[in-house]
Design a protein that fits this description.
Layout (H helix, E strand, L loop, with lengths): L5 E5 L11 H10 L4 E4 L12 H5 L7 E2 L2 E10 L11 H4 L4 E5 L15 H9 L5 E2 L11 H10 L3 E5 L2 H4 L4 H14 L3 E4 L12 H9 L12 H8 L8
Parallel strand pairs: 1-2, 2-4, 4-5, 5-6, 6-7, 7-8
Antiparallel strand pairs: 3-4
Length: 241
């Protein structure tokens, strides 16, 4: 089973439904032999998010803790049908990793649509978004091919979210279908923990088991190490490391 050395979706207690500090996340990552983690706390529109100043002050965080490189990031909220996200451009420009996800409490678009592909296509048009987060959600289905192929064209990634296998079990079959189509279309993915406590940092076992079952190619897991991730994003941005 592939070992993934870079986790590009981790939360800290700055998001108050998460429970660990950056230092604790980094120390667990170090104990697991990881190279890097991205600190991607929730953007301000979700109820328990940190204040916008949290993202303005990310440079206060050391770039390396316990031998693990720290990437500055955010999990931005997709807030409407057009794919608008809740982070200003001046901050997005400064971040290494921008994950964009739909969260029920702060999605103000149309509910119960049959297909949210247009929303995800709009998100991908944002030049600062790097990863479409946990799009396997059963609440926001989308026809896959156009979205996946656009992500591929723009050197962006589709997330396979390990936390969904625990917290969003109704999404698991959608996650499998997305991964299968990414395999068939040669589309890059990021396998992320979406850790809300340090012990889950770099914990991908359920997601990796599913990927093994469909014989997903290792070379399409673009966060398998930091060098691969940097090279994948290089045509459109530079990240730390």
């Amino acid at each position: 089973m592939v070992k993934i050395l870079t986790d590009t979706h981790c939360h800290t207690c700055a998001s108050t439904h998460a429970y660990s500090t950056i230092k604790e996340n980094a120390e667990i990552a170090a104990s697991r032999g990881m190279e890097a983690i991205a600190i991607t706390d929730h953007a301000p529109e979700i109820p328990d998010a940190p204040h916008i100043w949290h993202f303005e002050n990310l440079s206060a965080i050391p770039r390396e803790i316990a031998g693990v490189k720290i990437l500055y990031g955010v999990e931005a909220n997709i807030i409407d049908d057009s794919g608008k996200i809740d982070m200003p451009e001046y901050l997005l420009k400064k971040l290494d990793i921008v994950v964009a996800s739909i969260h029920n409490p702060c999605f103000y678009g149309t509910k119960d649509r049959a297909d949210y592909a247009d929303t995800y296509l709009g998100v991908l048009d944002n030049p600062y978004v790097d990863i479409i987060g946990h799009s396997g959600s059963a609440n926001y289905p989308y026809s896959h091919d156009e979205v996946l192929l656009k992500a591929k064209k723009l050197h962006k990634l589709i997330e396979i979210n390990a936390h969904s296998f625990i917290a969003r079990k109704q999404s698991v079959e959608n996650c499998r279908a997305i991964a299968q189509r990414c395999k068939e279309l040669d589309v890059g993915i990021a396998v992320n923990s979406d850790a809300h406590i340090c012990f889950d940092t770099g914990e991908y076992s359920h997601a990796l088991k599913m990927l093994a079952e469909i014989e997903f190619p290792e070379e399409l897991i673009m966060n398998r190490d930091l060098r691969t991730l940097k090279e994948y994003f290089a045509p459109r941005k530079t990240i730390y490391g």
